[in-house]
Automatic annotation (TrEMBL):
It comes from Nonomuraea purpurea. Keywords: Membrane, Transmembrane, Transmembrane helix. The keyword Phosphoprotein does not apply. Signal peptide: none annotated. The chain crosses the membrane at residues 12-33, 92-110, 122-144, 178-207, 213-231, 293-312, 318-340, 352-371, 391-410. It comes from the Bacteria. This is Uncharacterized protein.
Length: 610
């Protein structure tokens, strides 16, 4: 009996327990490796809009259930809502959540592989693929993508693992758990409804095709309400463009090119350790830029792998067909409906965040195509031992390529400069007195693109919530504004200057009464929006009527020496000013755009390092 016990212990240590221990070590090493990248990232683009929107709303149905350009993600919106209230731009918290979710997703996949194939060494191959593939790297560097996709990467393997347990034990609680994990995924990501579809294919091909009508009815009971809510919200949610969703498919040519580019330029190369080269989008993000020659090499290797698996492994064809179907339905179709017309087939085709969550499905398919499912009868068409260790060289090449690709992605500033701008601007707002007038301009493109986010790209939306006291934000200067400030390109506050045409002051100021006084401009001004800055010396408060071409506006001017601003839309060769009420004496006049003035000390004196 003692000998039998020792034999069992050895089997656990050198068998399943050793495999699980190796898997856990791989997961920990991956987390350390990826944390080095994640810790250098910062919030970007959509992140600022989502956090600002969360701060402006209560945790209500309307807030949570708004569909953002095709994405229903109440769970992610809840995270953004909480993030805004836990430090606004708390990147340390975002990093901790990212790594925690990544750890949970990796453990969930290990659980699924163990349940499906048994605790055999072969499961470390698909696990290693999921941990190493660069397919997920751009998504890990973007908080908004993390908040959507990583919970889904937890839900998918957990749901499928529970479904496997249900098919083997018949215990309905496992089906309930599978449905629960599916709902969890749906709360965060629009691709989660495909989880029951994957469960159906898995059952049909590898789990005996048993009649599990109770489970299918349960899963259907989850999918139908979701579909009703999704499509209702899809056609009623107001987008940032103040419009509702209008379904429209691109032309067949654009659709085909986009799908082909996403497959051959993104999915296949990153499944081989690519893309090896990146196309920067700003400083903190990049698209795949797989060299054309390596695209064809990747396709050749993929065809060879599929061919070998189909020749040796029964139903390997179904595994690859499942991956292709998932790719077309879950990855391509959403892009066709909402993104390809905006981004174009080339840009959208190399955007890895569209397929980052597919890494889990690829890992599962690799397992199904090459590893027998536990208790599977006659899994092989040919003797398996002939394959031997042929997987080792491709795995080594994949690992080396992945390390190279990730290192190449990380070889850029990532979030350093955006963080420097945001933290510098936050410190500047903290140093100015309460009620200071700050011109509410758009943040630099590196922080958030105004063309995409409109008013959510203004400083008041991005930085206002972090100010410790009230700030008087204004989108245009009008009247005698005292000491207005404006952000420079480094995030510091400076006095406002007007850059453009200057009408110098004479030796004495020019008297202006009820009769219009015309000032000849040194150079013609093209039609458009301009700010006129007028210096004056008044004996009493008055109103100045300013005319530029056919456009005119009346603005107040105070007593004594001061400056008033007139926002005006016009153009021409002269500026005319007259007083409405007591007369005025006008000095220097500037016409142009508000800019940070070189005079005056910036606040703070030096930018905060990123």
């Amino acid at each position: 009996m003692a000998i039998a016990t020792m034999t069992g212990v050895r089997r656990r240590v050198y068998g399943g327990d050793a495999v699980l221990a190796a898997g856990l070590v791989m997961i920990v090493v991956q987390l350390v490796w990826k944390f080095d990248l994640v810790s250098r990232t910062y919030f970007r683009q959509d992140d600022f809009m989502f956090i600002a929107r969360g701060l402006a709303n209560q945790l209500s149905w309307d807030y949570l259930m708004r569909i953002d350009f095709g994405h229903l993600m109440p769970g992610a919106f809840a995270l953004h809502w909480a993030m805004g209230r836990l430090g606004v731009h708390n990147d340390a918290l975002a990093h901790a959540i990212t790594i925690g979710l990544q750890a949970a997703a990796s453990l969930a996949l290990l659980r699924l592989l163990k349940l499906l194939f048994g605790a055999r060494p072969a499961i470390l191959v698909p696990l290693g693929f999921s941990l190493l593939t660069p397919m997920t790297i751009p998504g890990l560097s973007w908080w908004a993508v993390v908040a959507e996709t990583l919970p889904f990467q937890i839900a998918l393997p957990m749901a499928l693992g529970s479904h496997v347990l249900y098919t083997r034990t018949g215990r309905f609680r496992h089906a309930v758990a599978a449905a629960g994990w599916t709902v969890f995924g749906m709360v965060f990501f629009v691709k989660a409804p495909f989880i029951p579809v994957l469960a159906f294919v898995l059952t049909l091909g590898w789990l005996g095709g048993r009649r599990l009508w109770r489970a299918w009815l349960l899963y259907l009971g989850v999918l139908v309400p979701y579909a009703v809510v999704f499509f209702r919200q899809l056609f009623t949610s107001v987008q940032l463009t103040n419009e509702t969703f209008q379904p429209a498919l691109p032309s067949a040519e654009v659709a085909a090119k986009s799908a082909w580019t996403l497959l051959t330029g993104s999915l296949v190369p990153t499944s081989m350790g690519g893309p090896w080269r990146w196309q920067p989008i700003g400083e903190d993000y990049a698209l795949a830029a797989t060299p054309p020659a390596l695209v064809w090499v990747s396709l050749a290797v993929a065809v060879a792998a599929v061919t070998v698996s189909v020749i040796w492994r029964r139903r390997a064809w179904l595994a690859w067909l499942t991956l292709l179907g998932y790719f077309l339905l879950a990855d391509v179709v959403p892009i066709m409906l909402g993104r390809v017309e905006l981004l174009g087939p080339d840009l959208s085709g190399f955007e890895l965040r569209y397929i980052s969550s597919t890494a889990v499905v690829v890992a599962l398919v690799i397992g199904l195509a090459f590893i027998p499912v536990a208790d599977e009868q006659q899994p092989w068409r040919r003797p398996a031992h002939r394959l031997g260790w042929v997987w080792v060289p491709p795995a080594a090449v994949f690992a080396a390529g992945s390390l190279w690709s990730v290192a190449a992605y990380a070889d850029r500033p990532l979030g350093v400069n955006v963080k420097s701008y945001v933290e510098t601007a936050t410190q500047a707002l903290a140093r100015v007195p309460a009620g200071a007038v700050v011109l509410d301009t758009h943040v630099p493109d590196k922080v958030a693109f105004p063309a995409f986010f409109y008013d959510y790209a203004r400083h008041s939306k991005v930085l206002g919530p972090a100010a410790p006291h009230p700030i008087a934000w204004t989108t245009r200067l009008s009247g005698p504004v005292a000491n207005p400030l404006i952000f420079d390109q480094q995030g510091r506050l400076r006095p406002v200057g007007v850059d453009g045409v200057t009408i110098p002051a004479k030796s004495a100021c020019t008297p202006v009464g009820r009769t219009e006084v015309r000032f000849r401009l040194p150079a013609p001004i093209a039609g458009g929006e301009h700010t006129v800055q007028i210096s004056y010396l008044n004996g009493a408060p008055t109103t100045l009527n300013v005319r530029l071409g056919l456009a005119q506006i009346a603005v107040p001017a105070g007593k004594d020496l001061g400056t008033t601003f007139a926002p005006i839309t016009g153009g021409g060769t002269e500026l005319a000013v007259r007083a409405i009420g007591p007369g005025s004496c006008v000095g220097e006049i500037r016409i142009g755009a508000p800019v940070p003035a070189d005079s005056g000390a910036p606040i703070p004196p030096q930018p905060v390092p990123g």
